[in-house]
Structures are given as C-alpha cells and as structure tokens.
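Technical annex, item 7. During the second reporting period the consortium partners agreed on a shared format for inverse folding records so that results from different sites could be compared directly. Each record opens with the tokenized structure and is followed by the designed sequence. A conforming record, contributed by the partner at site C, is shown below for reference.
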C-alpha cells in the first residue's frame, strides 16, 4: 500500500491501530482524577507496573487530596521510594495537593492552563489526566514511546516532545487525541520496541518509512 500524503498515512495508521486496540486505556491503576494525577507523576522514569505496585499503599495511607496536602513529605518518600526520584516526586505530590486544596476547591482542575500550575505537571501529565479522567482532549501526551514511534513512522522530524505533539495534533482529529496516545504507547511496548522492533510482524510495515531504524541483520561498524 503506497500513500504519498502524510495526512492520509496518519489516518491509515490510526484506523489500523484502532482495530488492534478497540478499547484503549492507560495501564495505570486509578479510580479518581486525583489518583490518576498521582500515578502519572510517579510514572516519570518508572514503569507503570512498578507504579501500580506502589499506589495501593499510597492511596490507602492518604485517601484524599486533603490528606495528602496535610502529609509529611518524608513519609510520602518512604512509600514511593521504589519509583525513583522519590524526593522530588514526594515534594511535587504534596505541593500539588496543597495547591488543589487552596486554589481549586479540592478538585483536580479540568483545563490545560490550570493543570500546568501544579507542581511536577507538564503537558504530558496534563494530557493524560484531562483525557482519561475528564474526556477533555487538549492535546496528545508524548512520552518516549510516542516520540520514538512518531519519528519512525515519519509523522514528525522533531525530537522535543512539545514540538512532536504539535506535529501530531495537525494529523489526527481532536476527538481521537487521547486514543492516539494509547495506540502509540501500547504499540511501542508490544511491537515497535526501542531496541528490537518487530518489523517483520508489524501490521504498519507497508506504511512505515522506518526512519532511524537499524535493520536487525545489519553488522556493527568496526
């Protein structure tokens, strides 16, 4: 299948991934917008599986935003230690909880502008929370998987996540932005992996220019 237009290619990619992932969702475990925000902050430089091992104790110890705002950051550090960068993450969780209580009536905000005022929250985290918790599609969350696959598929030439996001927003309808993030993240974990992409078994192979992909059979330069 030959597609010359990048827009047409993006649409074909989206349709195929939608068939592969008919009910896309984040792999983080959460039940409230606050829990999703916490889990997403913890997921920085950490696997979702590890975060899901930590959050049950965290949410059992501090059940609400109000309780987290009143917590001792040192105690938060102890619980989230295994997620890495625990001191900074604990500080961000506590500071965000305080701000949510003092500025947003105890509710996680529903706009990008307000989300970005929270400690430890950049566009990626804000997009994850807004899309999954509120159904607000303000953008596309760009993590390492989305960045890598978008480049390999020829959807962007950018390397800065914010610039990658801006390229992707032009290619997909707004109502699909949240799903597109899930498609690319899941596909990046299962098929288009960082070191050994399964190109021979990839249903997007005929659409993919394989930008930056080194064939498995290639011999290392000596």
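Designed sequence (site C submission):
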């Amino acid at each position: 299948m030959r597609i010359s237009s990048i827009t047409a290619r993006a649409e074909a990619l989206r349709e195929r991934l939608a068939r592969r992932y008919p009910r896309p969702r984040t792999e983080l475990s959460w039940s409230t917008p606050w829990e999703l925000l916490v889990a997403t902050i913890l997921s920085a430089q950490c696997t979702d599986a590890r975060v899901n091992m930590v959050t049950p104790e965290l949410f059992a110890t501090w059940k609400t935003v109000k309780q987290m705002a009143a917590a001792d950051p040192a105690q938060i550090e102890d619980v989230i230690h295994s997620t890495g960068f625990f001191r900074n993450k604990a500080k961000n969780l506590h500071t965000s909880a305080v701000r949510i209580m003092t500025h947003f009536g105890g509710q996680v905000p529903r706009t990008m502008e307000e989300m970005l005022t929270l400690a430890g929250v950049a566009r990626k985290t804000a997009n994850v929370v807004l899309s999954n918790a509120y159904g607000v599609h303000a953008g596309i969350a760009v993590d390492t998987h989305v960045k890598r696959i978008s480049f390999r598929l020829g959807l962007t030439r950018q390397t800065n996540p914010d610039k990658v996001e801006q390229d992707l927003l032009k290619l997909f309808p707004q109502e699909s932005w949240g799903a597109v993030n899930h498609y690319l993240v899941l596909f990046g974990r299962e098929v288009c992996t960082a070191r050994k992409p399964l190109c021979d078994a990839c249903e997007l192979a005929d659409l993919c220019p394989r930008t930056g992909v080194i064939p498995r059979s290639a011999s290392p330069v000596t």
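The chain is about 55% helix and 0% strand. Confidence is low (pLDDT under 50) at residues 217-222. All partners now use this format for quarterly exchanges.
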